[in-house]
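Incident review: delayed structure delivery

Summary: a single-chain prediction request sat in the queue longer than the usual turnaround. Root cause was a stuck worker, restarted by the on-call engineer. No data loss occurred. The affected request and its eventual output are reproduced below so the record is complete for anyone auditing the incident later.

Affected input:
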Amino acid sequence: MKQHPGIRRAVCAGLAVVWLLLAPLWAACAETAGAPDYALAESWAYFADGEGLAADVFFVCPTVFSGTEEIFNMPMDDQEARSSFLGAINMEKGIYDASACFYAPYYRQIGLNVYALPEEEREPWLALAYEDVKAALTYYLENCNDGRPLVLAGFSQGADMCIRLMKDCFADEATRDLLVACYAIGWRITQEELAQYPHLRVASDEDDTGVIISFNSEAEGVQDSPMIPSGVRSLAINPLNWRTDATPASKEENPGACFTDYSGQIVTEIPHLTGAYLDPVRGSLRVPDVSPEDYPPVLPLFAEGVYHLYDYQFFYRSLQENVAVRLSAYLQAQAAQ
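Output delivered after worker restart:
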């Protein structure tokens, strides 16, 4: 018998309360619950992929795991999830790998079922995901970096993880000095977070370095989403004109939207698909020249007009160009020291 959605939500909510109460014990048992060992090749989707490049990119995958009524974090031995994980990385990899050697860890990401819970109940599962991501970055920094410039990047849940890394690991000045930029696309960063973590800076131009680049794409009229709940204002930058105010960029300023498959191949490229401007109240990126009918949300978590799944695709070429611009600016500044 199919379980009623209301019953399923109630069960998940009840489980969340239990996990919140047991979080300290659960965290202590994380090592025996399948924590990846990042000294092993099998714990990485990509490890040092690329030769002769001046920088590295550490990329954190978006959500691909659905979860079940009993499982809230992706098991490392779930082969179907690992295949989807690799494919989702490939969809964005081309933005970064022309400029930087590519690293991307597998991690026990949360499932979509966790996002169905109230936000305040998600943290035990998110904390486990972050435990893995931090361990992977720590392994990379201690064993692979050797002083190389570093691009931190992610999408959706991966962007959330990147912002957590910025708050935590990049508070250290020596680590922060390595940072070209953090591309935390598809998640929010707020003024309150900047006040709490004064070492964080958001991008204000196309070539500043050591900064967070973030935006969330929406149709005009959307007032609520899982990424920017109603009443929250996110700090963002327009990926077409690299402005942080409401100055619109026309679609002629968009060098190319690229729609990729799980191999990373560009299936369709559309120059000048859409312009964009920042909403001064929400801080979301308004996308005026496409229709929600043509670019549906796909997942039930998102309402019509929430273009979350297209954040990278709508602005693919502009982001690709910007990674090279920021890396060049970083290398020039290093050479001048």
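Verification: The chain has a mean pLDDT of 91.
Action items: add queue-age alerting; document worker restart procedure.
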